[in-house]
Amino acid sequence: MNFLSHAIPYLDNPLLAVSTGIPDWLTMVDRKIRARGKLAEQHVLSKDTELSLVAKGIVKHIADDRWFHGTQAFVETNMELAMQLRHLLPGDAGFRPTFVGHILIEMLLDGMWIRDDRSTAEHYYTAIRQAPPATIQRCVNVITGKPTTKLVAVIDRFAEIEFLYDYLDHEKLLMRLNQVMKRVGLPLLPDEVGTWLPQAQDLVESRRRRLLTPPGDVNHFPLIPVT
Asked: What gap in Å lies between CA 221 and CA 184, rounded to an integer?
């Protein structure tokens, strides 16, 4: 899942909602610092309320990723998108098509929430501004045991740019995909991918309900509009 989908069920609790984004923010800060579930679980019942909420956010992120990436809908959709990309980019039979398919599913799902109700993203960004980054950084340092002073700046920048809205525009979405490519050291995607994105969105849209239904669990997402 991406930032908004992780946070949506918890938007009535800003610190908890925002803390679901910590594992992804840490990849931007220092890939050697990991918000591991076993470490976070040790603080879920902490008397330090802020530490407890931050730990719960991390645990929920990890739990949601586990079921989400394990669903048949995600596996099948990721495979189909990767195959389409390999056809679109002859000779690219390596890791990149599968990786792009993976992150594209997550970006498109976030974009669909915003398209359906823009106030959802507005609520999320309001939550980020209500949850002090310094508090999050303090708690993350306790949980990981590997102090960083860079997390505050990353969260502040995230709130300032508001790039989740870019997922609504295929040209901007391609730009965001290429930012990820650059960050992980993969070749940038050509403009041809931008013309393919509407097709990819239609595929993800057709499986949206299946993608966002936890197996054997109560669905904690808002109702998905019938299209």
From this structure: 30
Residue 54 CB: number of other CB atoms within 10 A?
31
CA atoms within 13 A on the CB side of 23: 22
* Residues across the chain: 227
Calpha distance 146→163 (Å, rounded)? 28
Residues 81 and 105 sit within 8 Å (Cβ to Cβ): yes
| 35, containing H or E segment | none
Residue 47 to residues 64, 138, 155, 220: CA-CA distances in angstroms? 25, 15, 25, 26
Q: How many Cβ atoms sit within 10 Å of the Cβ of residue 191?
A: 8
Say if residue 227's pLDDT is above 80: no
Residues 103, 27, 78: CA angle, nearest 5 degrees: 15
pTM for the full predicted model: 0.93
**pLDDT tens column, 186-201:** 999 999 999 999 999 9
pLDDT in tens, 116-165: 999 999 999 999 999 999 999 999 999 999 889 999 999 999 999 999 99
3-state helix, strand, coil in the chain (%, to 5): 70, 0, 30
